[in-house]
Specification:
With 102 residues, the chain is α+β, with helices and mostly antiparallel strands. It has two helices and four strands.
Amino acid sequence: MKKLSLKSISAIIAAIIILFLIMSSICIMVFRIDSTEARNKALEQSGGGEIISEQIESEDLFLNEYSYIIINGDNWYDIEINGFGQIKEFKQGTGNYPLYKD
């Protein structure tokens, strides 16, 4: 059996790392959501209503985090959605929306 040189082993490890980074980037680009999809998801979770506040924060180079305050009738909803469309935080109440968050 032929032994691999240190140079060959290093090249294989470097190629594996580069392949992993490329595949990770592709997955992030495929599965991330944009602001329209996040807005629709927030409205779906609240059962509709009017968005009175929308914030988009950059989590990193490729992903954003979305925050919405929605009024639907006498109910308010405070919803945070990560860059992959998962609900991170969901608060709801009735009456006026509190001026200060917990």
